Each structure stands twice: as C-alpha cells, then as structure tokens.
Amino acid sequence: MQGTVIAVCRSERTGTKKEPCGGIFIEDYGMEKDAHAAAGIARQVSLLAEESIEKMQGQGIELKPGDFAENLTIGGMELFTLPVGTRLKVGAEVVLEISQIGKACHKGCAIFQAVGNCIMPKEGVFARVLRGGKVRDKDFVEIMRKEETGHGERG
Questions:
Q1: Residue 29 needs a FRET pair 20 to 30 A away by CA distance; which of 9, 70, 76, 125 works?
Q2: What residue spans of the chain are helical by DSSP H?
Q3: Tell me: the pLDDT tens digits for 17-63?
C-alpha cells in the first residue's frame, strides 16, 4: 500500500488549526516548530487520511488539511487500519512508527460543535519520528517491510 502526502501542516500554538507549510521532522521529537512536538513522547506527529477529511466534508462542513490539527494529510492510505508499530517511510528520509490510533475528541472542538461528530477518535493516527528529515507535499508514503527498518533504530 502506498500513499501520497497531500499537505504538511504545523502550528506554533496548541489549540489552533495547523497551517500548510514544508516540514523538517526531527528524530524522537516531531515536526520542527510544531506546538505538539516533544522528545520522548508517543504522539510526536499526527496523521490523517484525506479520505477521512472527505467523510466529514460529506456531512456539510467545509474543511481543509490541517483543520483537524494533523501534521500530515495523506491520500490513498487507510491509515487508521494500520496496526500500532507499523513503520512508514515518508519521502526519501523520514521514518515514522505508528504509536496510537485515535484520541479523545474535545467536545468543544469546532468540528464537533458544527456537525455533532468528529473523526479523530477513530481515524486520527499518531506516530513517533524514528528518522528525521524533510517532508514535502506530493512525497510518497509507504509501509516499510521489517527487513527495511534498519539496525540502528529504536523500536
């Protein structure tokens, strides 16, 4: 299964939508200048499938990448079906390891208030950065085979 980066997004403050930008991902930290990045935590980076956003758009709400505070919007992959521990190669350098599927939705979030539903509890995906580097829109995303994950990486 292979996908494509639709958008790379960040925000420098928590509680705000993320804005599209290019991105540097730092090993065991997250995305450079992103409010949610921190060393040693499991939820360093958030990912959401473009198809998940489209489900919410189908409920009559206008959305764009970053509106769910995701760092990476990915097209062509059903991310939430991948098991925890799955490693994803993003672009030429970055390796992410899925650490959590879903998270509690804030009942007060604007999307929940608008349509009475939110996809993050079931379809939001979180990952740790195992290998850093630059990620750009249109980069490929692919599941790594075990033999590709390398010897020096923690896991």
A1: 76
A2: 50-57, 110-115, 120-123
A3: 788 888 899 999 999 999 989 999 999 999 999 998 898 888 777 88
Ordered structural domains, the chain, with CATH: 2-145 (2.40.33.20)
Separation of alpha carbons 78 and 92, rounded Å? 21
On whether the pTM is more than 0.90, the answer is no
Two tokens at 14? 């928590």
Tokens 């009475």 belong to 116
For residue 16, the cross-strand partners are: none
Of how many residues is the chain composed? 155
How far apart are the C-alpha atoms of 38 and 110, rounded to whole Å? 25
One-letter identity of residue 97: E
Radius of gyration, CA atoms only, the chain? 15
Residue 45 near residue 72, CB atoms below 8 Å: yes
pLDDT tens per residue, range 130-147:
999 999 999 999 999 765
Residue indicated by tokens 């490693």: 87
The residue type at 18: K
Q: How far apart are CA 89 and CA 10, in angstroms?
A: 19
**64 within 8 A of 71, measured Cβ to Cβ:** no
